[in-house]
């Protein structure tokens, strides 16, 4: 059967008068779509601006940072009323110190404060100058929570006072609560070190993550407040109040670029 079909094909005259179809209609459509897509991409890459951003780790705190509370007298700690991660009011009793002569002295909070680190326990002997606690002062007039972030020093010329910043708080996921909006109020002129960062944030902060393995400068960001509920989140207010030393990530828009510029730089 196949042999007879092949012989008939050989005997058939050549069909030279018929046009040859080079491509099917769907093929032309695909080509047209590709041309339109490439043209649209070229226009987009030329006229569209894309923000170039950098991130910096930091903490939520108050302007004075963390202050160290030290013992002023020698004695035995016989009672303790304070602890880490608590708020105290000016005059609240922190601990009781009993001297060698048996006299007792109640040591009180010097101002309204948030206790970030508590370092004494009942039964401990204290000497003058020994660290007792680390406090963040809360009663300075007009002093709300702000973000103190540590930006790679190479980006310092690209940020300035008045620049808007988006701040994400680790304890309040951005997918649920959104971000905090802020404005740069100060840009540090000196590079920060482990010692200078620890002096401001205290011993409980994750200093290595703030240094980010390189040279950094401190950038202060004032955060937008929400009437009656603390800081203003872009999506929803968290059901808890943020405390000092909450870890954050700030995002700075340092330039607006066109996608075509990326190709030119190559």
Task: Characterise this structure.
This protein is α+β, with helices and mostly antiparallel strands and 266 residues long. It has 2 domains: 50-64 and 142-260, Beta Barrel (Elongation Factor Tu (Ef-tu), domain 3); 66-137, OB fold (Dihydrolipoamide Acetyltransferase, E2P) (Beta Barrel), CATH 2.40.50.100. It has helices at residues 2-11, 25-47, 174-177, 194-201, 207-211, 259-265; strands at residues 50-61, 66-70, 75-80, 86-88, 93-98, 104-108, 113-118, 125-126, 131-137, 146-152, 164-169, 180-192, 216-223, 225-226, 230-231, 246-257. The protein has a 6-stranded antiparallel β-barrel. A 4-stranded antiparallel sheet has the order 2-9-7-4. A 4-stranded antiparallel sheet has the order 6-5-3-8, with no helix packed on it. It is elongated. The model has no long low-confidence stretch (mean pLDDT 84).
Summarize the structure.
With 266 residues, the chain is α+β, with helices and mostly antiparallel strands.
- Distance, first to last CA: 64 Å
CATH superfamily membership of the largest domain: Efflux pump adaptor protein, beta barrel domain
Number of helices: 6
Helix content: 10-25%
Top-tier CATH class of the largest domain: Mainly Beta
**Strand-residue proportion:** 35-45%
Average pLDDT, rounded to a whole number, is 84
> What oligomeric state best describes the polypeptide chains here?
single chain
Number of strands: 16
Order of helices and strands: HHEEEEEEEEEEEHEHHEEEEH
Q: From the 3D coordinates, which CATH architecture of the largest domain would you assign?
A: Beta Barrel
The CATH topology of the largest domain turns out to be: Elongation Factor Tu (Ef-tu), domain 3
**Largest sheet, described in full?**
6 strands, antiparallel, barrel
């Amino acid at each position: 059967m196949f042999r007879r079909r092949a012989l008939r094909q050989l005997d058939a005259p050549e069909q030279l008068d018929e046009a040859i179809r080079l491509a099917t209609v769907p093929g032309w459509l695909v080509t047209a779509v590709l041309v339109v897509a490439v043209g649209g991409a070229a226009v987009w890459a030329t006229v569209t601006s894309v923000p170039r951003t950098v991130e910096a780790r930091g903490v939520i705190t108050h302007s004075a940072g963390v202050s160290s509370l030290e013992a002023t007298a020698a004695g035995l700690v016989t009672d303790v009323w304070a602890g880490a991660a608590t708020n105290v009011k000016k005059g609240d009793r922190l601990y009781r110190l009993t001297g060698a002569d048996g006299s007792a002295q109640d040591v009180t909070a010097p101002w309204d404060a948030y206790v970030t680190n508590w370092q004494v326990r009942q039964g401990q002997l204290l000497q003058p100058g020994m660290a007792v606690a680390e406090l963040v002062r809360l009663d300075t007039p007009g002093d709300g929570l702000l973000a103190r972030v540590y930006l790679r020093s190479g980006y310092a010329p690209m940020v300035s006072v008045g620049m808007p910043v988006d701040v994400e708080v680790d304890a309040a996921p951005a997918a649920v609560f959104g971000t905090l909006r802020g404005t740069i109020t100060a840009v540090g002129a000196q590079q920060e070190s482990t010692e200078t960062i620890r002096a401001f944030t205290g011993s409980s902060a994750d200093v290595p993550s703030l240094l980010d393995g390189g040279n950094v400068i401190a950038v202060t960001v004032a955060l937008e407040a929400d009437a009656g509920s603390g800081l203003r989140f872009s999506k929803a207010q968290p059901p808890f109040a943020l405390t000092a030393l909450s870890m954050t990530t700030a995002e700075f828009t340092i330039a607006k670029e066109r996608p075509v510029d990326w190709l030119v730089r190559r």
